[in-house]
Amino acid sequence: METVYLSERAQNAPFLSYLYNAVLSDVMAAGGRGELVFAGGRAAVGLELPEKDTAAERVADAVTEVLCIGYKQKFLRERLCVSLSARERGLFIAALIAADFAGDAAFVRARLPGRGGCAIDGVYAFRLAPLREKWERIVRSVPASFSSRDLVHFCGFLASESRNKIYLKGRAVYGQDLRLLRRSRLLGEEDAETEIVLSDAGCICCLGDVEHSLGDFLQKYYAQSAIFS
Questions:
Q1: Measured between alpha carbons, how far is 110 from 87 in angstroms, rounded to an integer?
Q2: Measured between alpha carbons, how far is 151 from 227 in angstroms, rounded to an integer?
Q3: Three-class DSSP labels, 23-83
Q4: Which of 218, 88, 83, 64 lies closest to 156 in space, CA to CA?
Q5: Are residues 69 and 159 in the same domain?
Q6: Which of 46-50, 113-117, 186-190 is predicted least confidently?
Q7: Does one domain contain both 169 and 76?
Q8: What is the pTM of this model?
Q9: Helices 55-65/101-109 angle, 10° precision
Q10: Which range marks the domain in which residue 167 is found?
Q11: Do 26 and 109 belong together in one domain?
C-alpha cells in the first residue's frame, strides 16, 4: 500500500472535504482506505492506496479540481467587478472557470508533486504563479459594464463551442460517463444551475420532468443545447 497525505489550511477545509468525498469510493473500491483529520490549524486527507492503482489518478484529478475550480473561484470573486446580480456573478465566475478548465487543468497536473501527496496551498503559492498571472489578465479583460445580456451571450457561445454532453435528472447533474457531478461544492454549495455551467456542456439531456425554475434557467442560457425527453 502507498500512503498519500494531502493538506490545506483549516480555512480551506471545505476543499479537502470535497476532495475526500470525491475520491473515497474509488479508493475503497480499490481496497484502500482514507481519513480526514484536523490538527494545528491545518486539515489533511490521509489515503492508503494500492500501488500503481488507478485510484491515484482520481486523487490527482480531485486535487486539480480544487486548484482550478475552488482556488480560481476565490481569485475571481475577489477581483471581478461587473454589472451583475450576486447570483449572475456566481454563474459568470463558473462560466469563466469552465471556459479554461481544460487548459488550466493540464497546467496544474504538470506541476503536481509525484506520488506521496502535497500541501495544496503550497502548490498554489509556489508552483502556479504563471496561472495566476493568466487569471489576472482575464479579470482585466472583463469590462465593468458586463451585463446580464452579456452573460446570456457568453454562456450560449461556450455551449456552441463545446462537445461535452451531460445528463440532468431532477436537480442531479451527471457527466458523460454518468458519474454524478458535484464540483459546484467547490464554489460554496451544491447547485444544479452552477453545476451545469461548470460542466461546459454543449448538450444537456434532461431525463424526466424538469422543475419550473430549472426549466427557466435552461431556456434562458441553454435554449439551443437542452434536449427534453
A1: 33
A2: 21
A3: HHHHHHHCCCEEEEEEECCEEEEEEEECCCCCHHHHHHHHHHHHHHHHHHHHHHHHHCCCC
A4: 218
A5: no
A6: 113-117
A7: no
A8: 0.95
A9: 120
A10: 148-228
A11: yes
